[in-house]
Predict the 3D structure of the following.
Amino acid sequence: MAVRVVVFDVGETLVDETNMWTRVAQAGGVTPFTLMAGLGATIALGRHHDDVWGLLGIEHPAGTWTMDDWYPDALPCIERLRAAGYRVCASGNTPSFVERDLRAHLDSVGSSESWGVHKPDPAFFARVADLAGVEPAKIAYVGDRVDNDVGPAIAAGMIGVHIRRGPWGHLQQPPAEAVRIASLDELPEALP
């Protein structure tokens, strides 16, 4: 069955989170290197990334999410997908205000905060299917994380597309049935 809708995760898929994590390290009173090492530990231990604060023994600082750092391949990919006739959406584990910035570039958007459910919960992917407006088999969900994005999308009956960037994208190995890309430049041609 052909893919008709492409749904993107946001962080480390469309948006480079390096500056966001640097700001949150500063807000937490640790160096970016220390925070990044802690995040690596959460990945290795298979724990939620918010567990980093407990591992480091500090309070969880206030959010510092912004949409200022789009990956250079993100918007051109969205344009190419639209030109090829795909409906293009996004939803990730993000604050709801991120939806405003995404709406300028995408057909439909959602967020874990708006929906009241977070990845990898199957209910999140049911909401993705509602957002896409087609049956799951016609949806490609693109993300950097195997545990939050690719695996749950496949379990929901979608095509899971793993982009190898960001720490999770490099450290987690996608299942054999996942479509694998290193850049969003590759995505339009990689879709089944």
The chain has a mean pLDDT of 94. The radius of gyration is 16 Å.
